[in-house]
């Protein structure tokens, strides 16, 4: 019997991560999910381990613990993340760095920890969860969009660098999905009154989009499709992300910009 592939999914306590870990374990993969505060869950189909992607120590402990148990890491799904809202001017450099620390450098730390193992194995797969915001940034989410765009660009470079070692890299760009992202949202702590009306409109629309968004199982199914693919692509758009990218490529810039301002109620 071949050994099942070992999969590590970061941020598996809710949302995409939990759905992905559940689906992959039902498909016969040996799945480890992570949380900063793992707790045993009734009927859980995968093992939960502790991980804070902001910490070098935590990342190294998580990956070395996994390798001690299983001897390998076949798939890493870099999914852990949160959303920071606030105007660019309202957000401190410290708050912006914290957004990058988790959403970009968190993935970087995980990749650096697993790559030596994957190169030694001569095989491996990395799936990074970016966002529609990487190519269609939302106002008052500028640093979130910047970190997701950075993750996309980084993944494209990495994909070329590790291909010859048998390691494949893909990026998922979901639209809006019903997860815990809105509840876990952080806000810039020094709001500027002039932005109040626009910021409030955007955040109301964003929370509405997430709560009425698609089923996060679709992202889990996309991860499965990527893992099962013989030649996975770089980018996978899920939900409305694909439609928005088509609009961006065909609409004149001025039409697109006024559509975005209308969409986020910036001028009402
Ligand atoms: N929902 C959407 O519409 C949407 C769209 C595009 C992209 N995304 C992206 O999808 C990914 C998953 O988000 P989600 O929507 O499923 O939201 P979610 O339900 O809030 O899940 C986020 C997960 O990230 C983990 N996490 C947060 N900070 C962490 C840290 N410092 N270290 C380790 N784990 C951390 C959380 O785990 P603990 O709190 O238990 O540690 C949680 O399991 C994120 O990268 C998000 O940006 C979401």
Tell me what the structure shows.
The protein contains 9 helices and 9 strands. The protein has 268 residues and is of the alpha/beta class. It has a single domain (6-241), classed as Rossmann fold, CATH 3.40.50.720. Helix 5 links the parallel strand 6 (124-129) and strand 7 (167-174). Helix 1 crosses helix 7 (217-228), helix 2 (56-70) packs parallel to helix 4 and helix 3 (93-103) packs parallel to helix 5 (142-162). NADP nicotinamide-adenine-dinucleotide phosphate binds at residues 10-17, 35-37, 51-54, 79-82, 102-103, 106, 129, 131, 174, 176-177, 179-181, 184, 210, 213.
Key attributes of the depicted protein:
268 residues, alpha/beta, Rossmann fold, seven-stranded parallel β-sheet, two-stranded parallel sheet, 47% helix, 15% strand, binds NADP nicotinamide-adenine-dinucleotide phosphate
Furnish the topology, listing elements before pairings.
Layout lengths: L5 E4 L5 H12 L3 E6 L11 E4 L5 H15 L4 E4 L5 E2 L7 H11 L1 H17 L2 E6 L12 H21 L4 E8 L11 E2 L8 H16 L5 H12 L6 E4 L2 H10 L2 H11 L5
Parallel strand pairs: 1-2, 1-4, 2-3, 4-6, 5-8, 6-7, 7-9
Helix pairs in contact: 1-7, 2-4, 3-5
The site of NADP nicotinamide-adenine-dinucleotide phosphate has 33 residues, from helix 1 and helix 3.
